[in-house]
Amino acid sequence: MKILLVGDNGIDQYQFGTVTRISPEAPVPILNYTHTVTKPGMAANVQDNLQKLGCEVDFVHGVKTCIKTRVIDSKTGQHLVRIDQDIPSKAVKIDYTNIDQYNAIIVSDYNKGSVEYETIENLRKNYSGPIFVDTKKSDLARCEGCFVKINQVEYEAAKTYPTELIVTLGRDGVRYKEHKISTPQVEAFDVCGAGDTFLSALAYNFVLTADIFEAIKFATRAASVTIQHIGVYSPTLEEIEQI
To answer: What's the pTM?
Structure first.
């Protein structure tokens, strides 16, 4: 399976340590730092998820990279603070030559500059296959003709909506048009990256089945694997099938 991925590039850093006392200087915990773990973030996490599912991915992204640093207490898994270093990027340029070689296109738009409305519209005009969009933009009607996946907060902030709208609701499942799809109830340790996993699995399964309901169910199972891990996590096909 060959996927074209368009979006914002990112790096997720996790700084681990233990907390045993509160600072005498301010009412904040003191972290005894132990180590740092670095993982792909934002659209790069989508790429990692797709590759874990066996996909070949061409990733088109802006030249700038955003870094998110999460400080975590190893003993409890509690996030203490997140530090964002967002560097806006210029919009990407797409080469439409032989674009129909791809089984699907995924747009992972964190609204950091790599993707403009026109980027999505031009992809739809030039590509005949399925396009999946995860975006923080609000004029979603401009993504008409694509499967648009957002969460409840993004849904409430949107000004317009497309026909093919998928809204993730956490433990309450997924809403697709007038339908409600339940999600596996598992213990959630960390929701970081769950949306990226859902998006990747959704596109992957739709290419295989051409059935959006089956793709949504598969994506909910994939995301339920991810949230059982600390930090972003890309599940394997075997792990998803066990859910």
So the answer is: 0.92
